[in-house]
Amino acid sequence: MIIGICGAGTMGRGIAIASLTAGHGVVIFDISDEALTAARNNVIEQLRKAVEKGKLDAAACAIAEQNIVTGSSIDVMSTADIVIEAIAERLDIKHALFTELERVCRPDAILTSNTSSISIASLARCLANPSRFAGLHFFNPAHIMKLVEVIKGPRTSDDVVSTCIEFARGLGKTPVVAADAPGFIVNRILTF
User: Fold this and answer.
1) Contact (Cβ atoms closer than 8 angstroms) between residue 123 and residue 175
2) Catalytic residue annotation
C-alpha cells in the first residue's frame, strides 16, 4: 500500500517510519520544503539506527529509503491508498486540507485523521463522502508506541474501519476501536 502522510512533524515522521518498516510506500506532504527535507533526513536516520540496533535488516532499510516520496503540492497524495492527516489541531485548517484531499485522492482512498481531540463527525462535515473517513490516532513516538485508536465516525463505513484495523495490525500495532467522544479512549482516561 501507499500511505500518504500530511504533516512532516513529529507524528508524521513516526507514522512514516512505522509504515516504511512494515513494507509500505510512503508519501509525505507538507507546505514547507524545509520541513519535508528535515522529515526525510530524520526518517532515514531513524531507519539506519534501527539497522544498527538489529531491529531492521540493511536490505529492508535500503528498500524503505527508496520508498519515501515527499512533496509540497497536495497532488503528491493522488497515489495514496490511505491518507493520515497529522497537522495542527485546528478544525479550519483540517477542513481545508480534507477538502483538497477529497479533490486529489482516488475515490477509493481512505482518509483519516491522527487528531487526539477533534471529533471525527466534525472533521467529516467538509467531505462529500464521509463514509471513507475515520480517525487513526497514533501515540508519540508513533513508530514505537503499540496502541492505535481507530475512531468510527457516524457515517464511516464498516469496510473503512476494518481496513484501518488491518493496517494498524500490519504495522505491529494493537488497534482498538474507540467511540467518537471527546479524547476518544486514552486521552479521556488521562484527563479524569
Assistant:
1) no
2) 137
